[in-house]
Write a structure and sequence with these properties.
Layout (H helix, E strand, L loop, with lengths): L4 H9 L3 E7 L1 H4 L5 E7 L2 E3 L7 E7 L17 H22 L6 E7 L7 H14 L2 H27 L6 H12 L13
Parallel strand pairs: 4-5
Antiparallel strand pairs: 1-2, 3-4
Helix pairs in contact: 3-5
């Protein structure tokens, strides 16, 4: 990603959210599977008119296109997985910070061609459903999201210990072909 001007502007604002999450505790019955500490950059508070919450800002430029931006269908694992992880970690962090109180929204503002977007709107629909869910359903949804994050981290860790050849674009094409899922299919809770 070439954030350039946007990165410089956001750096002046001091945007970002620090987090330190122990993950997998509820999945393993007590002991955390892993810990994620760091800072998610380019996170802004939502305007008051949109309620309490966070806005995760990402740019996907493509100077070769008429619009100057990638379309959602052009995004492969190399763009989708980091965006998903940032969103999911921010969602889990904000849910824990809220405790039993009202959850804040966690929105993604993606600077890209969204005319045929379905994956990102699907993530936002999932988040909206989480905000409307009753406590038991909300807890189950957050556990499932945490399980997905832990699995992605496990795969990353395994690749560090036992490296395999991995090519993000080829893997994305293979995954799409193997599951016959279109790149613009909506997020349904079963896809990353």
């Amino acid at each position: 990603q070439d954030g350039g001007w946007l990165d410089a502007q956001l750096a002046q604002c001091g945007t970002g959210v620090a987090l330190d999450l122990a993950l997998g505790e509820s999945l393993q019955g007590g002991a955390p599977t892993c810990r994620v500490s760091g800072r998610i950059e380019h996170v802004l508070p939502l305007p008051a008119t949109h309620g309490e919450g966070w806005q995760l800002l990402r740019a996907f430029p493509d100077r070769s296109k008429r619009t100057g931006m990638k379309a959602e269908a052009d995004l492969g694992f190399g763009e989708r997985v980091p965006l998903f992880l940032d969103w999911a970690l921010l969602r889990l962090h904000s849910a824990r910070a809220a405790g039993d109180g009202a959850l804040p929204s966690v929105r993604i503002t993606a600077l890209m061609d969204t005319r045929k977007a379905a994956w990102l709107p699907g993530l936002m629909a999932w988040d909206a459903a989480l905000l409307r869910a009753q406590p038991a359903e909300r807890a189950a949804m957050l556990d499932e999201l945490e399980r997905r994050v832990v699995q992605l981290i496990r795969w990353w860790h395994e690749a560090q210990v036992r490296p395999r050849w991995y090519f993000a674009r080829t893997s994305w094409a293979a995954a799409r072909a193997a599951t016959a899922v279109k790149a613009d299919a909506p997020f349904d809770g079963d896809s990353v």
